[in-house]
Design brief:
Layout (H helix, E strand, L loop, with lengths): L3 H11 L6 E3 L6 H14 L1 E6 L7 H12 L2 E6 L2 E5 L13
Parallel strand pairs: 1-2
Antiparallel strand pairs: 2-4, 3-4
């Protein structure tokens, strides 16, 4: 689990990122979860935007993605989800203790 200080650090790091995935009408599927997992391995921190036509609640979408990717939910701002997962090969971020 992330501590408050770590979440603040990750939020500041994520601020300038653009969402690289969009969840739309189809909701979350296995293919999307796999792609997000690969992107997390490469980047560690990413944003996902939830489109207006998404039929699921944003909290439900976030939980499905977190469960599927085993990532940490940093925050949900409006219709944007910020996720973090420590990379095995491409470690870039050093979290504060």
């Amino acid at each position: 689990m992330l501590k408050g200080k770590q979440k603040r650090f990750l939020r500041s790091e994520a601020h300038h990122l653009s969402p690289i995935f969009q969840v739309g009408k189809g909701g979350v599927n296995e293919n999307m979860v796999n792609q997000i997992s690969e992107a997390l391995e490469a980047r560690e921190l990413l944003k996902i935007s939830i489109l207006q036509n998404c039929e699921e609640d944003k909290d439900t979408v976030a939980q499905e993605i977190v469960k599927g990717t085993k990532a940490e939910l940093v925050q949900i701002i409006g219709n944007t989800i910020v996720l973090y997962k420590e990379s095995k090969e491409n470690k870039k971020l050093n979290l504060p203790q």
